[in-house]
Input
Amino acid sequence: MKKSNLRKIIISGNPVTRGRRYGEKAKPLIDKSVGRYQKAFREAAGVNWKKALDFSRTFVKRIKEYDETLLEEMKGMAKGSGRALEEILTINLRTEILFGLKKLAAQEGCTSFCALSEITREGNTILGQNWDYKPFAAEAMLLLQVDQDTGPDILTLVEAGQLARMGMNSAGLGICNNYIECEADGMNMDKGIPTTLIRRRALNHGTYREIIGTITHTPRSFSGNYLVATAEGEGDATDIEATPETVYYLFPKDGLIVHSNHFKGAGPGYVGSIRLGVENSVYRDRRLETLLRREIWKIGSEEIMQSLKDHFGHPYSVCRHVDENKPWHDQWQTNASVIMDLTAQVMWIAPGPPCEYEYQRFTFEAED
Output
């Protein structure tokens, strides 16, 4: 097994100061993100960097109206890293660019789960996912800790320059995000808020009600699946399949909920756009649920780690591996396997396919 050497950086202060510290500490990785996306936009979508930057500028006004603190943090990040604001925006807008400016056939994966206290060994609420995406994104991956003067502190795994991906906060709340797609995607392009900003604003909140409300009520240009959970009381989880037009809510059954990359809230038939990736999505979530239910009442981090290494359907499995027959910009793998114990406030991360990488333990402690 390969050792994990994932870096954690800690930022604090007001939004501009937080962003500047983020930019300074992560500058080499942010530079790498920019370079990789310049190439990916051009070769995968035929979008040159100037067009991507021009497109990003159109979001400034609506982001300011949505949450000015997020815009201020990105301005600080740009200053600290020596990049233009539009470049930081572009890293946070990769979904909108790849699937908005150009209608690509997305194959993005991810398999998420939440096990509630009633079925876990220690009585804790545990949330997590395998994040499947293009391998180059793992080269610029880091764990971001945001210590806030107002609101809970946040731990979130990101591509350098992003505000949030999956993560948890010190109020015992967590969020995972999976790609889903429907025919309405691309609507509201003049009003929609990028998914990275929705995730970060959700994690800024201290109550379960607020995190659900943020996802439900924010205008969206693209669909996204958000699995959110809380450690409050005996714990709870809600899966929100959010489209530009509506949302579907799914809830745990017998203490467990699992989701991959197809719509389930509208019924057992296929809902969404017919795209590559759906054919493996329909078995990945059921496979992970089967494995976790075998460990019912004794589920802990070790049992979950083992389940997330599963290779049923390889390489299009829960533990996703590169299909060497695909061109580089169409290759996918599990870039990170993330387990969050919302009750104990502990996060485990394997920075690559978990069958190959050891999990590294993180907390809100101040080591950096």
